[in-house]
Design goal:
The protein is α/β, with parallel strands linked by helices. It is built from nine helices and ten strands. InterPro entries: Glyco_trans_2-like (IPR001173), Nucleotide-diphossugar_trans (IPR029044).
């Protein structure tokens, strides 16, 4: 089954080549890579186009205005043709057998939505900072208390889920999307192998803890439609769990 890999890009020149090469080096070869440029002002587009010369499965989509990761990912989803949708940010990487193992995992069990383990690595040194191994499965209720699905490892089956869009919020749109999918399919299943590397960057929006609180609240209040008290309850639960895990 074919896989469409969605990669939003904004001023990613220094590291996007490594991300793209980790897709090109997959042992599973039935894929397309949709790189969606969100109005980069550096050499990102030139880097991608140079790699696409010898790799027809890489496609570049250029947006007319900067809209953020949700807009970029949604444009990629709309342009995709694969049975499965997977995501990889421009500064992250996959292990060579990531797609092979995950597609096999989903097909053997007729799974609609899955994710894998991943490691967090330092941007400068590439040293491993921590490792995440997913549980066997997570329900919608489980995910309300904590987002345990890394965007770089998520994959869903469009035949069962549809070609759905991420909610248009500036951050945490992936979390909102997982909840949206789980309302339909019930569970996300974990392949308990580390098959990706998430790059920890101090300049990312997700590293701004106050900002993160605001976007988490938006997921519950605006995307899930919860009351103010319920939204605050899940926001507090999320925050406490992240602190306990050392990811505050």
């Amino acid at each position: 089954m074919s896989v469409s890999v969605i990669m939003p890009m904004f001023n990613s020149g220094p590291f996007i080549e490594n991300a793209i090469r980790s897709v090109c080096e997959q042992t599973y070869d039935d894929w397309e890579l949709l790189v969606v440029d969100d109005c980069s002002s550096d050499n990102s587009v030139e880097v991608v186009r140079s790699l696409a010369v010898d790799e027809h499965r890489i496609k570049v989509i250029s947006l007319n205005s900067n809209g953020g990761a949700a807009v970029a990912r949604n444009e990629g989803i709309k342009a995709s043709s694969g049975r499965y949708i997977a995501f990889l940010d421009s500064d992250d990487r996959w292990e060579p057998r990531k797609l092979e193992k995950q597609v096999e995992f989903m097909e053997e069990r007729d799974i609609a939505f899955s994710h894998t383990g991943f490691k967090r690595v330092d941007l400068t040194t590439d040293a491993m900072l921590s490792e995440y191994i997913p549980p066997e499965y997570l329900t919608y209720k489980d995910m309300l208390y904590s987002n345990q699905v890394g965007c770089l490892t998520a994959m869903f089956d469009t035949k069962q889920v549809g070609r759905i869009a991420m909610p248009d919020i500036r951050k945490r749109q992936d979390y909102a999307m997982w909840l949206k999918i789980l309302r339909e399919v019930g569970s996300v299943y974990g392949l308990n192998e580390v098959l990706a590397s998430y790059t920890v960057r101090n300049d990312s929006i997700s590293s701004n803890k106050i900002s993160l609180l605001k976007y988490n609240y938006s997921v519950f209040r605006d995307c899930e439609g919860f009351s103010v008290p319920a939204s605050l309850y899940y926001l507090l639960a999320n925050t406490l769990i992240r602190i306990k895990r050392g990811r505050s």
